[in-house]
Design goal:
Elements: E1 8-13, E2 16-21, H1 34-37, H2 58-61, E3 74-76, E4 88-93, H3 99-107, E5 119-127, H4 134-140, E6 143-149, H5 155-169, E7 175-180, E8 183-185, H6 187-197, E9 204-205, E10 210-211, E11 241-242, E12 246-250, H7 251-261, H8 270-281, E13 284-285, E14 292-293, H9 299-306, E15 318-320, H10 330-347, H11 353-356, H12 369-397
Parallel strand pairs: 4-5, 4-7, 5-6, 9-13, 14-15
Antiparallel strand pairs: 1-2, 3-6, 7-12, 8-15, 10-11
Helix pairs in contact: 3-10, 5-7, 5-8, 7-8, 9-10
């Protein structure tokens, strides 16, 4: 289950690649030397000083180099998927068994027939028992598979896989979108938005449903297959992070995330782990929460938000179909939602980026002080109210000696 003659490479600089290994083990899989995967010291990003009010456990800041090398070999690779002058690399986290979802994405928003921009679709998978995707890979040439078992806990591995593959094989893309396989993206809106910021993008996540600090780290609410990953965090609260359903960033940010991931122990959930990487790097977040529909609503509500008469003048462009119980299958609803998007753009083919990309309440910084100040003010107000209430009670009952 591999492409014969595959040589895994590590990018030393944008124009120079270092061969890691052509050795093949007894299963026909390339052998990777962990020392070769380590970034040169000159390229290794150093964590920014940890803030005094940071909620991240100190051990994640001080972990030794290469404590998380992500040395899983490729069972299937498609390095030729990345081409020159690529504007948007779309990496979809999926499972081998999710054949219908991949087919729906290829036929709808991930189709490679856009004339006005360049994008490339790649599916990232682990392994599942008794499921082979070799024939599908040979047919479409858009699948990358690493040798780790699919599970909820291993979504963190798949996110690191996305960063690593981009760094090794696709250093020509301007932007990278990493998403789950149950979403539909208005690729016309997204591309117009990215073009509008490409000359001066935020040095971090530019498409992000931001969960602000500080959400409780409640591991007991996670599925049973999380295993030891959750315990590695050892913190009470998570830092701010983007929802894992879909997030986009410039190539430079993705490369930094990959290098920092090598020195940061993993834990579940994966999106909170990415939040740790972002804080260590000092990356910023553009909170485009109004661009998402479906993270906290059902399928009919999602489709309704795309079918609205004012849709083209709204920031909505990511439909999340996860966790719903729709009428019909997930793939059928993906086709249905994409059909709605297509009809909207046929009604008004010339897009007014300045109008529909008014993403309000965007947070251009990774600073959370404003929220802590608000919480402190609320606590202060409650304390004052309690004191006043106590004084009133004492005066009425004449049980307290109050100053006249």
């Amino acid at each position: 289950m591999h492409i014969s003659g595959l040589a895994v490479c590590y990018a030393v600089n944008p124009g120079e690649f270092k061969e890691v290994s052509d050795d093949i083990n007894d299963r026909g899989i390339p052998v990777i030397d962990l020392d070769d995967l380590a970034a040169p010291e000159s390229l290794r990003p150093q964590p920014v000083p940890q803030a005094k009010d940071s909620v991240i456990p100190h051990h994640l800041y001080t972990a030794p180099q290469n404590s998380n090398p992500h040395a899983y070999p490729y069972l299937i690779n498609s390095p030729s998927s990345c081409r020159e002058n690529l504007f948007l690399l779309v990496l979809i986290r999926t499972k081998p068994s999710h054949t219908a979802s991949r087919a729906a994405i290829r036929a709808t928003w991930g189709a490679q027939r856009r004339a006005n921009f360049t994008q490339q679709l790649v599916f990232l998978v682990g392994t599942e028992p008794n499921i082979s995707i070799v024939s599908e890979s040979l047919l479409y040439g858009d699948i990358v598979q690493e040798d780790f078992v699919e599970s909820y806990a291993n979504l963190t591995l798949k996110t690191a896989m996305a960063y690593k593959w981009t760094q090794l094989f696709c250093r020509t893309a301007k932007f990278v979108l990493i998403a789950d396989d149950d979403i539909v993206v208005d690729i016309y809106k997204l591309t117009a938005y990215l073009h509008s910021i490409e000359d001066n993008p935020s040095p971090g996540f530019v498409l992000c449903y931001l969960y602000h600090c500080c959400r409780p780290a409640l591991w007991q609410g996670l599925p049973h297959d999380v295993g030891p990953h959750g315990r590695l965090y050892r913190g009470i609260y998570y830092p701010q992070y983007c929802a894992g359903a879909a997030m986009a960033a410039p190539l430079a940010a993705i490369n930094k995330l990959y290098l920092m991931s090598l020195d940061t122990p993993q834990f579940a959930p994966d999106d909170a782990w990415v939040g740790v990487l972002a804080e260590k790097l000092g990356l910023t977040f553009v909170d485009t929460f109004k661009s998402y529909s479906g993270l906290h609503s059902n399928t009919e509500s999602v489709i309704g938000s795309f079918n609205h008469s004012q849709y083209l003048s709204s920031p909505v462009m990511v439909g999340v179909l996860n966790g719903t119980r729709p009428q019909g299958t997930l793939s059928a609803n993906m086709h249905r939602l994409w059909g709605t998007i297509q009809r909207q753009h046929r009604m008004q083919p010339k897009l007014n980026v300045a109008v529909y990309m008014q993403i309000q309440n965007a947070d251009f910084h990774s600073d959370t002080h404003i929220y802590r100040i608000a919480v402190a003010a609320l606590v202060f107000d409650l304390a004052v109210m309690l004191i006043i209430g106590y004084l009133i009670f004492c005066r009425k009952k004449q049980r307290c000696k109050l100053p006249k």
